[in-house]
Design goal:
The protein is an all-alpha fold and 276 residues long. It has 14 helices and two strands. The site of geranylgeranyl diphosphate (GRG) has 16 residues, from helix 4, helix 8, helix 9 and helix 10.
Length: 276
């Protein structure tokens, strides 16, 4: 994927901002979100190189969110994907611009897909609404709002759904739209939110139980007095919840006709066993 990012962004003027964009994009990462998107295409047996641009755009949006999440005004973290965070490697202004540019260029890249215009518009519509002020950004706002405050599980679920679930759900929904299987959009939406919730609870568990060496990022929830699944549910119930959510996802996928769910199962299994 690193080579694809370098090629796809080759039209961008050389600058420190471009260097910072490529630094964060090629720093590693599990690439879960593009894998989720691609698993839907494979499951419906759709193969079109043009959709690779959507896959890259999704990872660019995810990377923007991480760069901004790490900024001093947000979580103020130094380590991401085993390397310096973008603002430590470059500087704060460059990191802000690199995040902004990744978000903007992601939509530009999608706009260049040579696919049916109704598919393109639907993808842009769903993606922008799920990562916007009612989606991922709202989740980030709630994440900061609930620092130092008590939170119940329902409010924590809303926070997780917006902060993490919305983009993950968008990956599955975009896959479904690209395959023109509109009748299954709601199923993929729900499965996406459940994967997102399980993923975020796991993230809280790993932040609590693992080390920054293994995670490749700072475990900063305690430092930042974050409301997490651990302080709301306790570690045992949190773990049980993760197992139940992944099982539910697998069940829900059974009702989708003519869809080979094995590719999506593979990713869910990967997530179940993830250590970082
Ligand atoms: C506009 C200021 C501003 C913010 C944008 C920053 C933001 C909105 C939202 C934050 C979203 C966020 C950081 C959610 C956390 C989700 C999460 C668990 C990320 C880690 O994902 P992995 O483990 O990371 O897939 P890798 O490094 O493997 O890609």
């Amino acid at each position: 994927m690193n080579k694809d990012f370098i090629e796809s962004l080759s039209y961008i003027n050389n600058s420190k901002v471009k260097d910072a964009m490529l630094y964060s994009l090629t720093a590693g990462g599990k690439r879960i979100r593009p894998k989720l998107f691609n698993s839907i295409l494979k499951g419906f047996n759709i193969d079109n190189k043009e959709f690779d641009k959507i896959s890259l755009a999704i990872e660019m949006i995810h990377t923007y969110s991480l760069i901004h999440d790490d900024l001093p005004a947000m979580d103020d973290d130094n380590l991401r994907r085993g390397k310096n965070t973008c603002h430590i490697e470059f500087d704060e202004a460059t990191a802000i611009l690199a995040g902004d540019a990744l978000l903007t260029e992601a939509f530009y890249l999608i706009s260049t897909c040579k696919i049916k215009s109704d598919i393109l518009i639907k993808c842009i519509n769903i993606l922008s609404s799920l990562i916007g002020a009612n989606g991922m950004i709202y989740g980030q706002y709630l994440d900061m709002y609930y620092e130092d405050k008590n939170i119940d599980f329902d409010s924590l679920k809303t926070l997780h759904n917006c902060k993490t679930g919305a983009l993950i759900s968008a990956c599955l929904m975009l896959g479904c739209i690209c395959c023109e299987k509109y009748e299954f959009l709601d199923v993929f939406k729900n499965v996406g939110y459940n994967i997102g919730l399980a993923f975020q609870i796991q993230d809280d568990i790993l932040d609590y139980t693992s080390t920054s060496n293994i995670l490749g990022k700072s475990n900063s929830d305690i430092k930042n007095n974050k409301s997490t699944s651990i302080n709301v549910l306790g570690i045992d119930i949190a773990r049980k919840h993760v197992d139940e959510l992944y099982l539910k996802c697998k069940d829900d996928l059974n009702c989708i006709q003519n869809f080979d769910a094995k590719y999506l199962y593979e990713i869910i299994n990967l997530l179940i066993n993830r250590k970082k």
